[in-house]
Amino acid sequence: MNCPKCKCPNPPGATYCNMCYEVLIHSAAEAFLRSARRERLQAQQGGKIEDPVFLGSVVSDTASVAKEIDWVELSRATAQAVKRFHKLILWGLVAIATLGIIRLLSSTETWFFLIGTRLSYSVPPKISPRYFISFHYDLNTWTEKQGRLDTPLPHWRVDELGNVFLEKAKGSSAKDPKLTIRPQEWIQIVYRGDVRQSQAFPLSHPSLTPVSVGLDRHGFVVQRKFQLSPRLAKGVDFLVPRFPKGFLKKGRTWAEPIQWIETIGEWKIHWSGKFHWTLMGQQDCEQDTCTQLFYKAELHPKIWEAPRWATGAIGRPSFTGATTGNVFFNNNTKRLYSNDLKSDGILRIPLSNVGLVPRKTRVGRKVLGPGEIVLQFSNRVSIK
User: Fold this and answer.
1) What span, in angstroms and rounded, lies between the C-alpha atoms of 119 and 222?
2) What is the pLDDT of residue 189?
């Protein structure tokens, strides 16, 4: 059956045309249902229904208009306009290209990709930046004999908290820039079970002696003068790392020699070794751009000071564990933005006789013979 309106062929028994929806077999019920569906569709589409016949007429009208256009004359007029205003068009293209190049070259990501970045320091002119330093120690200790537990030793949990200034040193000049790390305050918190003891250290304490950092005229660290101590001197390696000179690109690696002392309970440990650095890339830090760096520590322990009962009876310690850190360096202020270190491991110290453990700390009967002192620690360093 052909539709009387659009002449479209339809299958036998069709009640309306598949193309223009013209009613072929009149039915009041079906007509009402189609009318309801049409009204609902108009309400959903804002009153617009895409009619295939209408779309076809639009296409045909567009084709007829295109045929009436004199494309040859249009091309000739376009060519004349380009020839007449070619200088103006050229200057416009040059302006657009110049703006694009300026925007590209002003991007820190572009310069970082092309030549890398320099991790050099600058001397604060007037206002000295203040940093918060946090050392967290969590130490479990016990003794072993022939690989078996002998007796547990005291558990130590200590927090060292301090505020320090990074300021221009006396005698610093443009040719010989110097920095000084000076403490503002320092507090130690010792946890023993449910008891917490706090102690504020005076600024005249030997462990809070100011540290001097020498720079070259380009801002790279050339020397760090300090006496080893478990507080301010320890923070030097983390607050003012020594970076290579020149420009560094993403993926660059290098090693930095380091050393510091940690005091945990009755133990004072000297750590030495290297930080193996990797430049990861650049990240946004607040309103500035920072260079992100990752480092992994290669550490060698040495017992700097032991409890009185173990003095002269211990051997060379061995260390197994992992120490990693993450650094953000502010490229605009040319100073450290943050440094976070995580160190977890076990330190084993040979002991000539486990019977030297004091009776007041020993659990169980006294055992004699050689063994080991085991120090299991989880330490953190955070500088902001």
Assistant:
1) 13
2) 92
